[in-house]
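dude i think i finally got it to work??
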Amino acid sequence: MSIFGSLNTAVSGMNAQSRALGHIADNVANSQTIGYKRVDTSFEDLVAASGPTRAAGGVLARADATNDIQGAIAQVENPLALALDGRGFFSVARPISTPAGTATTFDPRAMYSRAGDFQLNAEGYLANGSGDVLQGWVQGADGNMDAGRLQPIRADRTGIAPQPTTSLGLSANLPQGAAIGTGGTTEAPYYDSLGTLRTMNLTWSRAAADNTWNLDLAQPATAAGGAATPLGTYSVSFGSNGAPAGTIGEVRDGNGAVLGSYAAGIPGDALINLTTNVGGVAQPIALNLGRFGAADGVTQYAGGSYELRSMDRDGAPAGAFASMAVQDDGRVVVNYDNGASRTIAQVPVVTFADADALERLSGQAFALTPEAGVQQVVAAGTSGSATLQSAAVEGANVDLAAEFARLIVAQRAYSASTKIVTTSDEMLQETISLKR
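look at this
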């Protein structure tokens, strides 16, 4: 082993510890960076020659990724933020600078990230703090998720058309001991095809027959002094056809035709299908009185007067974009100011056989490499993938105390290598002095 060989070995040690110091510096600097994965350092022995005449080789520092090691998850106030708890990554697309007024274009490379601090950007895309856009399964015009490909998720900020009411549900109790001709009236609100809130009157009156009530449906007059528009008269009997006492056993229309009746073991709905007409537009509505033979919906039990329990309906007026949120199952939901909401996409999780082999990019992103294996795109929480936590972010997986300990070790090792350089230099000086 020559003095020059020792000198070269010491220099390789200094270089290796310098690289280790660089990894530590990166980790400390990014200790508060969302989704950052620290870089550890491992050392490899370099052998120039082995055996009895072994020559000094050196050391090589290698960066070790920790892409699959979980960072701490913290709740935040941003409803669009997402954190992954377990294995996997978000699929993201990196926008490419484009002229103003043109459609956004994206880098064609497949990219992934654990940085889930997503917010809506100016173009309506869900982008994290590094500007990378979240990708997922986007819902098509047919209402089905396109799970065959990943696309950038973009919020449609346009409003939604009104949704006319198609179903009304009534829950009430008719007093069993009421006198003939007495009863009560319920005003049932509903939305027409233009999103206007209308009213339908449901008037109950005790019929002459035992346990039978008449139901008159009418549309109130739309102008002062006008007449109401009848929508039909129906007969509802309780405890008939073997139904338990107090529950609906049969429903007939004004002509006496049976619209539905109790059948043991078959909990069918007591429905009245009617059609309103506002401004010449026919609107079919199904009035649900409950189930035949069941104590829900409309019943006839003891009581002093007509008792309305609840009245529900579907439909909504026209709505404008109000907000957006991501649920724990990954569904991206757009909310409107009329109370309506709809799902526009779902966020899957992407896993790899060797996540540590992904190529690191700036902005806490990773690029696909052949060594990482084929990407597996699955729903969150399936096939061993991570679960999602909404309104939360994953912090860096950096332990500052551990980094400071590594810093001290790297400093001491570097200092020791410099001592070898100094000693080798002194020995060389002694060798050169031999000629004097």
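Residues 3-66+397-433 form one domain.
im so relieved honestly
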